[in-house]
Each structure stands twice: as structure tokens, then as C-alpha cells.
Backbone:
């Protein structure tokens, strides 16, 4: 939204409620029946994440891989949230339902975004053995990013202050519930579902080219070296931040004077937010919840 556009009247912030065991608001449950009955196609690609784990980043990478060469116009004319629709969202301010957007996508494969925990994924994705890309981010940077997002996005519940927000996150009382359950649930799914590629935000930050190669090998794509170089360049944080098709600047429910959607894009920003005491408490609680030694996150690189 530009400064000269009048801000539209925003509805009050929604309340969280328990939905099949996770915290959600009505914006993510209003179309539930349609979401549950969604008919996935075998070539659909699902990007699943806990909010603020790098969804837009990986959505853009996938979009460039599939359509960067063949449909470059859409990169400059369609915001990312219409190219890679958010399956379960419905709100009338910026777009109607994610499911309508998915069903009206003219291109294939359809690249679809969701924040649902593994147990709530519509069953047709499993039946069609769709490729799924899961992106996870370390809990400390994830909660910081989520806090700033909730401050600026008025369709999120009121985050309150940082101190109370951190506890809400630890208790799973934020949208999409427990980060701990989300990342673990999807990690476990890899054991029984081989069409799942689990990525880490920190790895992409560390070596985007390496992660792009792994992703291409999972997707069965072999872009040229030149194309891969172009993609890596395109998806740099500063480029994405400037790009109005990616930075959500057309979303009326976000107040960019509070925080940007492309805020910092760093590993380790949590150190600017956690006090020493908060860090100790968080680490103690983390140890109790994260028992699987095979799932390790890096909070710095
Ligand atoms: P920060 O708030 O820490 O800056 P999502 O797309 O899942 O909502 O995640 C948003 C987070 O990913 C934000 O984190 C955003 O800045 C970060 N992000 C988006 N694109 C990025 C990129 N190209 N490089 C690094 N971080 C990126």
C-alpha cells in the first residue's frame, strides 16, 4: 500500500481458539470443509512451514524454478500470494479464499503453501503422493520474526508485549499452535513418506546454491548453471525486500510503519530480543520438548 492510499477500516483483531488441538483463528478455518476435501493433483507441490520460517523465500525459489523461464511476466504482474496461494486462508480484505486461488491457477504444476501441521494436511495430498517441501527455522529466530509479524498484521491476534509473547509461543498459544510439535511432526513424517524434502532456513542462508541443488534433485529438475545463478541472485534478501510482488506491500491488513514483511532476514537476530534470563528459561523448556536427537537446529551460523 502506498502512503497516498487511504487506509481501509480494519476489522478487530481475531481471537484464537482451539481447532483440532491447535490454536487458530477463523481466517484459517472458515473454509475448512473445502480444505479437507481438497482434491490434490499428482503434480501439485506443497510448501509446508510453521509461519515465519522462510515460506515466501522458498515459494519464490520454486516459482522461479518452474516459471522463471517460461512465464517471466507473472513475476512482475502477480504478487507471490497469488502465484503460490495459501491453501487454508480466507479473508476478504486482500484476497478471498486461498482455495479459490488454487483452483483457479492457470499454470501447472500448482505450487501451494500451507502452515498446517502434518496431521491436518488434506488427505488427497498423501493419496496423490504429492511432493512436499517443508521449511523449518530455529525456534528463537522464528519467534522473533513471528512477534514482529503479529504486531504489523492485523489479521493476527494481538501479540501483546515481547515478554508475554515469548511465553505464548512456548505454550503454543499463537497461530498454528506449537512450533515444537509442528517441526517434529513433519520431521517424523519423513520416515514414512519419501516425497518430503525437509529444509532449514539456516542452511539456505549459509549456502543457497547447495540447498538449491538439493531441492532440484528432489524435484527432478536440472536447470542450467546460468539459470541457477540467476535464481540465487533473485532470491537475495535485499532483492526480495525491494520487490513489490514479494514484500506484501499490496496487503491492506499489514502496517509497514510498524514492521516490514521482509524485516531482517538473518540468523541470530534473536540475540537482540532475548534477555539472558529469557534465553535460559527458553533453553530449559526447549530441552524438555525437543527430545529427538536427529532433529537439530542452529541458532547461529
Ligand atoms: P525476519 O522477520 O526474521 O526478517 P515467511 O515467508 O515464512 O513469513 O517468513 C518471513 C521471514 O523470512 C522474515 O524473517 C523474512 O525477512 C525472511 N525472509 C524472506 N525472504 C528472505 C530471504 N531472501 N533471505 C533471508 N530471509 C528471508
Residues:
Amino acid at each position: 500500500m502506498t502512503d497516498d492510499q487511504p487506509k481501509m477500516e480494519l476489522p478487530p483483531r481475531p481471537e484464537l481458539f482451539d481447532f483440532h488441538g491447535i490454536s487458530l483463528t477463523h481466517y484459517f478455518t472458515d473454509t475448512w470443509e473445502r480444505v479437507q476435501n481438497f482434491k490434490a493433483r499428482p503434480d501439485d507441490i506443497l510448501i509446508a512451514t510453521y509461519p515465519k520460517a522462510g515460506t515466501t523465500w522458498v515459494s519464490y525459489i520454486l516459482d522461479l524454478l518452474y516459471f522463471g523461464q517460461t512465464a517471466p511476466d507473472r513475476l512482475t504482474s502477480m504478487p507471490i500470494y497469488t502465484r503460490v496461494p495459501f491453501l487454508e486462508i480466507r479473508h476478504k480484505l486482500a484476497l478471498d479464499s486461498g482455495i479459490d486461488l488454487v483452483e483457479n491457477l492457470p499454470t501447472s504444476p500448482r505450487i501451494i503453501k500451507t502452515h498446517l501441521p502434518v496431521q491436518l494436511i488434506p488427505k488427497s495430498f498423501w493419496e496423490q503422493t504429492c511432493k512436499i517441501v517443508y521449511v523449518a527455522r530455529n525456534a528463537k529466530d522464528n519467534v522473533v520474526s513471528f512477534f514482529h509479524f503479529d504486531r504489523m498484521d492485523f489479521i493476527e491476534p494481538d501479540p501483546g508485549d515481547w515478554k508475554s509473547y515469548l511465553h505464548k509461543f512456548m505454550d503454543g498459544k499463537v497461530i498454528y499452535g506449537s512450533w515444537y510439535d509442528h517441526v517434529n511432526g513433519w520431521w517424523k513424517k519423513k520416515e514414512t513418506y519419501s516425497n518430503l524434502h525437509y529444509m532449514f532456513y539456516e542452511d539456505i542462508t549459509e549456502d543457497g546454491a547447495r540447498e538449491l541443488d538439493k531441492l532440484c534433485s528432489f524435484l527432478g529438475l536440472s536447470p542450467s548453471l546460468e539459470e541457477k545463478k540467476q535464481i540465487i541472485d533473485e532470491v537475495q534478501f535485499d532483492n526480495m525486500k525491494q520487490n513489490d510482488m514479494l514484500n506484501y506491500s499490496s496487503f491492506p491488513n499489514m502496517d509497514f510503519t510498524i514492521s516490514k514483511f521482509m524485516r531482517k532476514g538473518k540468523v541470530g537476530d534473536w540475540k537482540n530480543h532475548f534477555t539472558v534470563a529469557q534465553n535460559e528459561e527458553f533453553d530449559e523448556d526447549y530441552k524438555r520438548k525437543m527430545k529427538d536427537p536427529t532433529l537439530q537446529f542452529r541458532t547461529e551460523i
Remarks:
- The domain at 17-289 is CATH 3.40.50.300 (Rossmann fold).
- Residues 49, 51-57, 141, 145, 148, 235, 237, 240, 262-265, 269 surround adenosine-3'-5'-diphosphate (CB under 6 Å).
